[in-house]
From TrEMBL, chain A:
Protein name as it appears in the record: Heme exporter protein D
Organism whose genome encodes this protein: Roseovarius lutimaris
Coiled-coil boundaries: none
Chief localization: membrane
Membrane-spanning parts: 12-31
TrEMBL record, chain B:
Protein name: Heme exporter protein C
Domain Cytochrome c assembly protein: 18-186
Highest taxon in the source lineage: Bacteria
Pfam name, any one: Cytochrom_C_asm
The family this protein is said to belong to: Belongs to the CcmC/CycZ/HelC family.
Alphabetized UniProt keyword annotations: Cell inner membrane, Cell membrane, Cytochrome c-type biogenesis, Membrane, Transmembrane, Transmembrane helix, Transport
GO molecular function, one term: heme binding
Function summary: Required for the export of heme to the periplasm for the biogenesis of c-type cytochromes.
Gene: ccmC
Chief place of localization: membrane
Membrane topology recorded in Swiss-Prot or TrEMBL: Multi-pass membrane protein
Cellular component GO terms held in the UniProt record: plasma membrane
Organism name: Roseovarius lutimaris
Amino acid sequence: MPDLGKYAEAVLSSYAVSIALIAGLIVVSVLRANRVSKQLQEIENKVKSNG
Amino acid sequence: MNLNALWEYANPKKFIQTTDRVLPWVAGLAALSLVFGLIWGFFFTPEDYRQGSTVKIIYLHVPSALMAINAWMMMLVTSLVWIVRRHHVSALAARAAAPVGMVMTVIALITGAIWGQPMWGTWWAWDPRLTSFLILFLFYLGYIALWEAIENDDTAADLTSILCLVGSVFALLSRYAVNFWNQGLHQGASLSLDKEENVADVFWYPLLVCIAGFALLFIALVLLRTRTEIRARRMRVLLARERMGA
């Protein structure tokens, strides 16, 4: 860990907030992609079975 | 290269097939360059003689601010394609990019405030660049809200495209505010084609890697989210057909 001196709080909080926001965006995007893909598959199967 | 071949990707099926192959590579490269760039910048670069260790915030602040503006520019191009050629994939790509651009704007604003406090003695100032970035954030919010508020996809795409055209003025202002108005607290551009105006090489190289990482992350997320929007749209069409049939 580098010595960040008196600005340690500012530097570490910048990295923490940014990484949390990026991780949150990735998680939300992947979860929604999986959910929508699954829902579409179900609807397409239903449409096919109804002819 | 035949530019007309590009329009093939406006076909939703072709877009999904192509991104099936491309997305894992882009996502992998994004992860690799982000991890490498941030570790390099955080652990292996020195302090700045004036700004101390706060200079390490540059590896988050500059790439996120760049992507915040470039995301809106990408939305502008895809919105224009929608207005002119009526390709649904382009309108959906703009919709998919907006939340990513908004998060980049939030990161730029927050890291800027955290960096500004020890350097300027204040979290916020009504400086031209800061203010235009705040307005850009509000445009992102409005753009996303407008998509959610309108049920008909084509009407939503029309109206959000117009909003995107108007917001482009602020996206450009955010980029060039420091050049237009020679006032305020924000320093000049950190990146320039003129080597003399750039930050020192020891900060510049890891910064370039981080910028590449943020750009690749943006592309990966937009591809993933566009695929989701295409599927969500197909789902709405199928449900509407089913309702009409019943």
